[in-house]
């Protein structure tokens, strides 16, 4: 999360005066509503709902969903993914031992 916070800025969405500009999250495809919390990526300036982008990046996708520019170093994403696999395997192992 610290790396995500460093590479993006959060904001509260406010409707713009130009009605022809419809802003939406490219991950969930929903329009931003007044007061929604979003994240703007520092390097490419693409904007998403905060929770959508966090889920995207935490599921071992270290790139922007639109332009694929690197947001989180691949080393961090790979390490996080390995930790998730180990955690899941430990849970499966515990369940198997409990069922024996």
Structural commentary:
With 100 residues, this protein is an alpha+beta fold. The chain has one domain: Zinc/RING finger domain, C3HC4 (zinc finger) (Herpes Virus-1), CATH 3.30.40. 41% of the residues lie in helices and 13% in strands. It is built from three helices and three strands. A three-stranded antiparallel beta sheet has the order 1-2-3. A hairpin with a 5-residue loop joins strand 2 and strand 3. The longest helix is centred in the C-terminal third of the chain and has 26 residues. The chain is elongated, with a radius of gyration of 17 Å. The chain starts with a helix and ends with a helix. The model has no long low-confidence stretch (mean pLDDT 77).
The SSE order reads HEEEHH
User: What top-tier CATH class fits best?
Assistant: Alpha Beta
Whole-angstrom Rg? 17 Å
Q: Provide the CATH architecture.
A: 2-Layer Sandwich
CATH level-four homologous superfamily name: Zinc/RING finger domain, C3HC4 (zinc finger)
> What is the mean pLDDT?
77
- The order of strands across the largest sheet is 1-2-3
* Tally of discrete structural domains: 1
The CATH topology is given as Herpes Virus-1
Content-based structural category: alpha+beta
Strand fraction equals: 5-15%
**Low-confidence segments:** none
Total of DSSP H or I helical runs spanning 4+ residues = 3
Major β-sheet profile? 3 strands, antiparallel
How far the N terminus sits from the C terminus, by CA atoms, comes to 38 Å
Summarize the structure.
41% of the residues lie in helices and 13% in strands.
């Amino acid at each position: 999360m610290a790396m995500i916070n460093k590479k993006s800025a959060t904001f509260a969405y406010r409707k713009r005066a130009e009605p022809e500009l419809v802003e939406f999250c490219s991950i969930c495809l929903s329009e931003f509503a007044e007061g929604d919390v979003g994240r703007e990526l520092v390097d490419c300036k693409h904007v998403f709902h905060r929770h959508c982008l966090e889920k995207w990046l935490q599921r071992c996708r270290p790139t922007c969903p639109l332009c694929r520019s690197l947001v989180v170093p691949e080393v961090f994403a790979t390490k996080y993914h390995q930790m998730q696999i180990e955690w899941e395997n430990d849970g499966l192992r515990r369940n198997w031992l409990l069922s024996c």
